Amino acid sequence: MTGGQWSAPITWADMGYLAPEATLAAFMLALVLLDLLMPRKYNRSLIGWIALGGVLVSMGLVIWRMLEMNPVWGAPEDAVRAGAAVSLLGDSYRIDDFASLMKTVFLAATGLILLMSVETVKERDVPTRGEFYYLLLPATIGAMTMASAGDLITLYIGLELLSITTYVLVGLRKRSSKSFEAAFKYIVTGGISSAFILFGMSYLYGLTGSTGLNEIGMALPQLVTDYQALVYAAFFFMIAGFGIKIAAAPFHAWAPDVYQGAPTPVTAYLAVVSKTAALAIVMRVFYNTVYFAESGAAPVNKDVFTALLAVAAMAMIVGSAAALRQRNAKRLLALSGVANAGYLLVPIGLSLSGAHSNNFGEFFFYAAAYLFMNIGMFAVLSAVSDSTGNTEISRFAGLYHRAPWTAAASVVLLLSLAGLPVTGGFFGKLFILMGAAAERQYWLAAIMAVTSIVTYYFYFGIIRQMFMRTASDEPLRMPATVSLTLWLCAVATVLLGLFPNPVMQWIDRIFSLPGDLIIR
Length: 520
Hints:
The protein is an all-alpha fold. It contains 22 helices and two strands. Helix content is 74%, strand content 1%.
């Protein structure tokens, strides 16, 4: 890419690399027509099942592409990689292991959310059920586009596709005043976030004359010499914009209200897919610009990554402290997500002493653990709220007596959220904490440890409600798809806790910082 213009058109042969995204787009268009042609009396759950099938097909294509690019997964760690990143449209869109691994997170999360919502999204709550199912597909395309973006324009297109679609999803409960309020707040804060990001990008484009991340990185050392103040403004506006997208303090004020007002499956989507997509693009952008230009961009590179660590620390402290007084489960999980955004920012910001593939390994492992423990808890919450009529924590009272196996699976997920062994959340936090200690960021490791201990209070508060409080003895109705989602998440959480090292070794074997994240 030169001067922001694509240097080569896309060919039919290149379209094969876009098969996962194209599959979701094809399924979405087919489901729009199906929804229009189906009589109103027919159940829209069929659309949900077909959408889930499209997500599974897309995930299969992503995994097949990773297998093709990494045919030597079983080889020793020092074996030469047989695959190479695929660059489309002059590096504006990349198919590499960073993008593919993140796409598996997005698609797995979307699939689990569709599975849990097939029997829990009621027409009385969401009148346009068909729209709910197929709107998740373009939102996921937006997240996938963000993960593969090698250019500011591609990045922004993916960001806005994800954002605009989720604005609609948040407001689908048309008869709920809380949903209307949540949609309004989300649109306003989302628009501010996009404006900050676009404003920062405009500075980078104005200074370099290019929207390509690699060209911006190469031009940055000279820019720091001539236009240091403008470079600072560009990156700090982008940090503020992305901070809103990932709901990291002090940019998190919108999250509790939006999470509470949105339909529960949409809340789960915002908590997992939207957050991890924004975090992934933060890693892609900042490593290719600030870190890539490290040798000649000091002190900007140090200050930018220090700012990321400061946001991470604030998110952990504010999220954990604010959740202590919450009595609504959705708002509690929103503030828990603020703290978890801080944990996920730590490995991204630990580039002050030199980045390595473990930065991404730590990030990806905790993102996978976060996926399962959050979606599992939202699945339980959807069943509890459907049974009791609201999402207060007190509604979990007596869950052990009403649904003992559901309570047992919930305990596993809550222990993972709290970071206790033997769960995926425990090892995810441990790997990040050890990475911070290895980089001699002891203050950050201390904040992680203390805030993790603080979270025990509110996570164990839910467990106390389930086992030590009494309520109606009427059995809790758990739809089959919700139970399946819950147990898939609980089993995956335990497996990540039992076999963390093989997962990390697998990530380190297939992921290469120069080949899969840095654009040359």
